[in-house]
Structure formats: C-alpha cells, structure tokens
Amino acid sequence: KLAERLREDSSYNNAAKRTYGREIDPYVITRAIANYERTLVSGNSAFDQYYYQGKKNALSKDEKAGYELFKSERLNCIKCHSGFNFTNYSITNNGLYDVYSDPGKGRLTTLASDSGTFKVPSLRNVAMTAPYMHDGSMNTLDQVIDHYISGGKNHPNKSKLIKGFTLSPTEKKQLKAFLESLTDYSVVESD
Fold first, then answer.
1. Vertex 146 angle, CA 145 and 149, to 5°
2. Which residues contact 67 (CB under 8 A, 6 or more apart)?
3. Nearest to 162, CA basis, from 150, 172, 174
4. 87-122 burial string, b = 16+ CB within 10 Å, else e?
5. Looking at the whole model, is its pTM more than 0.90?
6. Are the C-beta atoms of residues 162 and 147 closer than 8 Å to each other?
7. How confident is the model over 91-124, as pLDDT tens digits?
8. Model confidence pLDDT, tens digit, residues 157-176
9. Which segment of 14-18, 30-34, 146-150, 179-183 scores lowest on mean pLDDT?
10. Phi and psi at residue 165, in whole multiples of 5°?
C-alpha cells in the first residue's frame, strides 16, 4: 500500500527511477530508508560528552541519576539497550500486546516462537524519534516508560527481562532526563 501511495507523487517516483532504476516498490523504500538512516551519525550528545569525552558537567544531577536507574538491576534497561548505540540488536517481544496484528519476525520464519518479535531499537536521539514502538503506538517517552513500569502484557513470547518495576515521580523524571540526554542536537540541527 505504501509503495502505491508514494508512486502517486511523481517527484518520489522520478527520484526512485533516477536512483534505483525502477519505480517505487518495497525494494526502493527499504533501500532509501536504510541509506537515510546511515546518515544519522550521533556521537556528541550530552551523554557522550559526559561518558566518552569526560566532561563531568555535561549531564545534570537528574540525568546522572537517571543513568544509574537505567543501568540498575531493578530496571534492567541496559540488558537490551546496551553498547554505544544503546541496543543489543536482538529481536524480542516487549509485551506491548496480548495479540499482535503484525507478526514481526514471525512473518519471515513462520515460527510461533518469533510471533510478535521485533528488533530492539537504538535509543540514540530517542527524544526526537517519536512515535515509539514497532507500530508507532506511543507518542511520548512518558508512555514508553509507563509501559515498562507496568511490565507489559503477558504475550507467550515476551522477554523474561520485561518484569515491571516501580518508580517514584522523581525517579521517572530522572529516567526521562537521561533518555533525553542521548540526543545529539548537532545531528538534529544539521538536517
């Protein structure tokens, strides 16, 4: 459906023909998105300045406290959102739904164990990448945090790492502040 809608815009279709030698189709769409995503290099966020560049004042007190929460065993965020890009690149289920209209990886493998599983996204520039979740069903970081606080739905393929937890209002504010510190505004401003 998306390819059909995009083909209606002659400027998109002409660009596809110039670049890929064909009309807009799923191949063109996926290659165009991948090429665009490769241009989004992020490495100068407040967190990067603090953690990698040693600028101790680059993060606020709340952002530092949020990072400690993020890493804590209590929240366990770092088990999936680790490394420089804050993703372990795994494909998993985060308990968003009891039943998924999109089978995720299961569409490719047809295995019941892959139903409703999706790639763990990077948290780089997360403050600028709404809507969230594989289907864009959440519009704010607060909604995302609330989902993980709840522990999600009991889908049979839900990761055992998603257990739910409690946060005080101050801790929730700190966790959100940390997540926002992952945004590299120099990348955003250069667009």
1. 90
2. 47, 59, 178, 181
3. 150
4. beeeebbbbbbeebeebbbbeeeeeeebbbbbebbb
5. no
6. no
7. 999 999 999 999 999 999 999 999 999 999 999 9
8. 999 999 999 999 999 999 99
9. 30-34
10. -165, 175
